[in-house]
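dude i think i finally got it to work??
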Amino acid sequence: MELTFDLREIASKTKLVITKPKQFFKKYDNEKDIKPALVFSIVMSTLASLINVVLLAFFVGGIGSQLTGGALPAFDLVTPAKAIGFFFSSTILTVLLSFLWSKLMQFWLNFFKVGASFADVYKAYSYSRAPLTFLGWIPLIGILFSLIYTNYILILGITEYTGEKINKVATRVVAFVVVMFLLQATFSLFPFISSIN
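look at this
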């Protein structure tokens, strides 16, 4: 499988999916395989990892402290080797998890009578990640807004690709997100709760 990276096309897609998601999914509804979405996912994951490494270096690695004359505390926990390792592992893991999340969501949607193929869900999921990449690093407001907008774009994409009614898709996607959040919260709290006894 050959993947081609056209950065102008990716920039154009990013702008369109963020500013006019309905128009984006109508325009790119003819993509039959997942290669363009995979390329988009790789680029968005790389950018998100790069943003996170820069923020880690600035706030945790001591660069912010040096630039502000000590106004920000210096932790010096981020070495160049750790930053590079984080960058590559984060990028690879995000791309791999996009397949897992898409497959889980496809199973969920099909279980609740939304006829979605893996390609439909993967494309919608990959393209919907653009707002999270560019806004998700902003504390609280950026994270909250980008998560809501990302899910809105995901719903629009699945609706366009499957031809299902938006209300049907929206209820199933929101339910999936809530269930996944609760599962993640439960497993995150389990070590803490078990250590109390």
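Residues 7-196 form one domain.
im so relieved honestly
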